[in-house]
Amino acid sequence: MPKPHKDASKTLEFPDNGLATLLFGMNNENLSYLENALSIAIHDRGNKVSLSGDGAAVGYAETVLNDLWASLKKGGSVGTADIDAKLRFLQNDDVKSDGDKARMSDDEKITISTKRKEIKPRSPNQAKYLKLMQTHEMVFGLGPAGTGKTYLAVAMGVAAFLNGDVERLIFTRPAVEAGENLGFLPGDMKEKVDPYLRPIYDALHDMIPMEILTKKMESGEIEIAPLAFMRGRTLSNAFVILDEAQNATTVQMKMFLTRIGERSRMVVTGDLTQTDLPKGMKSGLRDATETLEHVEEIAFHHFTPKDVVRHKLVSKIVDAYENKKQPD
């Protein structure tokens, strides 16, 4: 049985009152959030903060506050999501030695630069995913909503495009009728399928200024299209992402994967628990994971509900559905 940690106390001082106010948060919400997350006591007085409680937890709090302070001094921002991200790295179950801690610290420093923002992993599993996309020509990112699998893939593609590593960005999704009939939606085919591709547009808008994005899409350097439009093509010198791949049929999946051309990279993302295919039809994503799992050049990365980086309630919702007793 592991020995309990001894209680400890620590006082930290942050010399810039303006930045200290940002660090503590409006009405000290950041301090309260950290206090509740670690079950310790945090009290502030002026620009000083006192920490007391379990020794390991106090150490975590000290590291988080000092790291966020350093970020603020570089012009960054601080919120509860940043606190969660720091704690995920510090409390990672895989960290067993000082060497592991150093490695995880390096993982946290991984940065993807885009036109509008710098993007960093918010969990150890996200860091592993980014590394796989840097080292493999084909990567499958599997797991529940909110784990960043699509957003990080888009970020990696945008960075590769901006750096000149690839000449084109191609994003695609199966246009599956998830409870709605495409035929009854107004507009031409593009207008009918655009709602299915909206998450990709949203991610791109977060990373590339609108005027540049519009210009690149008009020139064909950035393409967003339904999966069916990939048939018969060879996608060379491109970063290609298939999103919501659980809704691809086995035939569509084979078609897509064999489109890869010279100097290209492919990322396939999906959640095998959320397929909208007709009952009884096997998901092409499931079939691909079973068929290709022993191909060394292809990487499969799995996220779990613990990796959800959206609002904490999202993680709890995912957990509740996964744990729900299925009818006999």
Write up what this structure looks like.
The protein has 328 residues and is α/β, with parallel strands linked by helices. It is 44% helix and 17% strand. The protein contains twelve helices and eleven strands. The chain has helices at residues 17-24, 29-38, 55-73, 80-90, 98-108, 124-135, 149-162, 189-207, 210-219, 250-257, 284-292, 312-323; strands spanning 7-13, 41-45, 48-54, 112-113, 118-119, 138-142, 168-173, 222-226, 238-242, 265-270, 298-302. Strands 8-7-9-10-6-11 form a six-stranded parallel beta sheet, sandwiched between helices. A three-stranded antiparallel beta sheet has the order 1-3-2. A hairpin with a 4-residue loop joins strand 4 and strand 5. Helix 10 (250-257) packs across helix 11. The longest helix is centred in the N-terminal third of the chain and has 19 residues, at 55-73. The chain is elongated and about 65 Å long.
